[in-house]
Amino acid sequence: MTIDRAAADKLLTTTRSVRKRLDLTRPVEPELIQECLEIAMQAPTGTNAQNWSFMVITDQAKRSAIADFYRQGTAIMSGSGYPPPLEDGDPREHVMPKVMESAGYLGEILDQVPVFVLALVKGRVENVPMLIAQASTYGSILPAAWSFMLAARARGLGTAWTTIHLFFETQVAELLGIPADWTQAVLFPVAYYTGDDFKPAHRLAPEQMIHWDSWGDHH
Ligand SMILES: Cc1cc2nc3c(=O)[nH]c(=O)nc-3n(C[C@H](O)[C@H](O)[C@H](O)COP(=O)(O)O)c2cc1C
């Protein structure tokens, strides 16, 4: 079968972080989550290690506890200087307040999002001094995580890539019984999205980001 390129490009360019358009009233079928995760596990891993795990969290008490950690994380982050303030004239200056507001809003409704998916990888970057091992650790879960978002979007499910709860990674590990040698990479709240379409995002100018043969050489 040839790939329907228009459909593939549409999926790749319109898979957004969905926060305000999550349908909090519609349950998500467990089979759909299972399907998305099986697709996600077609992603590459370093040395084909497949050292990934995915926790699907539907239990209300656990979701509420994680949502609470997310909110506490948001509060810590806003006073932490991370991410560093944008320089004057940074083209992201206008969208950043919206992103932060939207990420904060997600915290407010997080308890009500019906499913959380937590993607994990075996290993801890702080224990491996070699850059290649660090790259392999995160590099063996992030492609699968993005595939999960794409597969979800193709099924009418909205997700947002989130990491704010990681201020409390240890506490979340304890809550869910995660062994100490596993790293939590990303937490996805998952729900059906409302409305039927998303737009490609405005991104920084690609010509400044793409270098041909020598750093700074742009086509
Ligand atoms: C590594 C990483 C961490 C992120 N953490 C959060 C988060 O904790 N909360 C949140 O609401 N969004 C989070 N995001 C989503 C970004 O804010 C979002 O991808 C960005 O603003 C671009 O918007 P788009 O995904 O709709 O294109 C994260 C994204 C990435 C890649």
Task: Describe the model.
The chain has 219 residues and is of the alpha+beta class. It has one domain (13-79, 99-209): NADH Oxidase. 40% of the residues lie in helices and 13% in strands. It is built from eight helices and four strands, in the order ααβααβααβαβα. The chain has helices at 5-13, 30-40, 60-78, 96-109, 131-139, 142-154, 169-176, 206-209, and strands spanning 52-57, 115-122, 157-159, 182-192. A four-stranded antiparallel β-sheet has the order 1-2-4-3. Helix 2 (30-40) packs across helix 6 and helix 3 packs antiparallel against helix 4. It is globular and about 55 Å long. The two termini are 34 Å apart. Bound molecules: flavin mononucleotide. Residues 14-192 form the Nitroreductase domain.
Tell me the β content: 5-15%
**Assembly context of the chains:** single chain
Give the CATH superfamily.
Answer: NADH Oxidase
Number of strands: 4
The termini sit apart by 34 Å
CATH class: Alpha Beta
| CATH architecture classification name | 3-Layer(aba) Sandwich
Task: Report the helical percentage.
Answer: 25-40%
Q: Over the alpha carbons, how many angstroms does the gyration radius reach?
A: 18 Å
DSSP helix count? 8
What is the residue-mean pLDDT, rounded to a whole number? 95
Distinct small molecules bound, one entry per kind: flavin mononucleotide
SSE pattern, N- to C-terminal: HHEHHEHHEHEH
Strand order of the largest sheet: 1-2-4-3
Largest sheet: 4 strands, antiparallel
Q: What's the number of structural domains?
A: 1
Derived from helix and strand composition plus strand pairing, the structural class reads alpha+beta
